[in-house]
Amino acid sequence: MSTKGRRKMLMWLVTGLKLILGLPYALLLLRQKVEKAHSTRRSSNNQKNQLPILAILAQEVSEMASNEKDVYSPILKRWLPHSAGVAVATLHSCYGNELKQFISSINELTPGSLEVLGEAQKLEKDLVDLAVEDSVDSEDGGKAIIREMAPYEVEMVVSDLVKSWIKTRVDRLKEWVDRNLQQEVWNPRANKERIAPSAVEVLRLVDEIMEAFFLLPITTHPSLPTGLISSLDKCLQHYIIKATSGCGTRNTFVPTLPALTRCTRGSMFFKKEKSHIAQGRKSHVGTINGDNNCFGIPQLCVRINSLQHIRTELDVFDKRLKARLRDSRSNGSSRTFEHSLDSCKEGIHHLREAIAYKVIFHDLSHVLWDGLYVGEASISRIEPFLQELEQNLEIISMTVHDKIRTRVITDIMKASFDGFLLVLVAGGPSRAFTRQDCKIFEEDFKFLTDLFWSNGDGLPYDLIDKYSIVVQNVLPLFGTDSESLIERFRSLIISSYGASARSSKLPLPPTTGQWNPNDPNTVLRVLCYRNDESAIKFLKRNYDLPKHQ
């Protein structure tokens, strides 16, 4: 055959190859054929879970490429050495156009879309392998052909769809949290564990999302599980923060300290009037959310139980997730749900404090702040406070989770010690004491510590002793004579302020709240409540403090 004839034959063969194997028209015919076949299958009652059209098309294109390699390429290679590479590149491009249209039409992750993308990824691999195999003897090893095959980027598409899948479910979960926490009443009788139903349900929803994620038929990219867990972590943290908000703090319940005043001789008997007690209560008791029942002590116990339950379940989630992440070759070494666990820890501490100070300074204010040692100390002692405190401790012990019960009771003990001492050093003008009252204070404080000791069935003695040191150190001041207290006060002032404090009027020491016998403000307050002539004259001369009203 002449050279002109060979060239003509080559042109005919290449054109025929493209018409048969690569042109969009040929692919369209194939697609129509597959659609028809799929329609026939779908109409059959015995056929279920049929593959999407584009997934079937990918399989057919792969078969076509293999057929070309086995049947036509051995013949065409005599005139076109890289005929198979040209064919698969053309098929790759044609299917890629179909795939682009499909991708632009999907906005969520579905089993059908994943099947199409999976088949497309498999097809691309098959076509690239064929192109490389066909070009193994070429100078560039098939690089030119591969460059013509624009990647389908299936992994990036799947990744974007998964991220959208995660965002949709996390956004729904956050909306659920906001809606259900508004309706949650924290009822201790809701279940035997005394856990909020919303806490149980939010964990179930989180677990359900995680299970659904790991059941997705995808090759998991390391960043995807991390992104999912981080998003769920923030959502749970949102629940925890909202569950603890509005419950109050120590400062919510501890009353504002009244202004310093001095006693007047014989005035303490006048202070027993009930009208003054009621007025004192109105001005000093802390309030919270209008005393909403959702913030009662049993309800606060349910809140703290719920956080403890979440904390325990997150440890279970962590172990299960680490096993899953190891299986998917993701980073499973770091702690999961880190922010939620930290928020649980902080929230439990916050709620413990809220329970303790609400019980002592709010619920029992009528027998502590408004009752204890008001008027004459000997006839307004601690017994009423102890009786009601014991009732509250029984309720709390039966309601709060056993793993945190001791810590809650310990916080209540600390708050009760704070309250007892605050009555003595900042109880307001309804109180005035003599040196002889010190024995009453010591005896009553012993009754208070015995309540928490409970004959060995309560808190450990060492723990009680540890937190009672502040009160035990301050109590002896109330039995010290006024002249010695005044000298002690002068010495502490001079030690604190230097030579300038030696003037006729001593500077007024600031209130630090750190009550101890070496704090000048603590000693000054003992003098303010000392009902004798020496203390009254000293306070009048040095500070011109007003009288108890």
Features:
single chain; 549 residues; 20 helices; mainly alpha; elongated; 68% helix
Q: How many strands appear in the DSSP assignment?
A: 0
Strand fraction equals under 5%
Distance between the termini: 129 Å
Mean pLDDT: 83
Descriptive notes:
The protein is mainly α and 549 residues long. The N terminus is likely disordered. It is 68% helix and 0% strand. Helix 1 packs parallel to helix 4, helix 4 runs antiparallel to helix 5 and helix 7 packs antiparallel against helix 8.
Q: How would you summarize what this structure contains?
A:
This protein is mostly helical and 549 residues long.
Which helices and strands appear, and what pairs or packs with what?
Layout: H1 3-22, H2 24-43, H3 53-76, H4 83-105, H5 111-134, H6 143-148, H7 154-183, H8 197-214, H9 223-244, H10 250-253, H11 274-284, H12 297-327, H13 338-363, H14 383-399, H15 402-426, H16 437-453, H17 461-478, H18 482-497, H19 520-528, H20 533-543
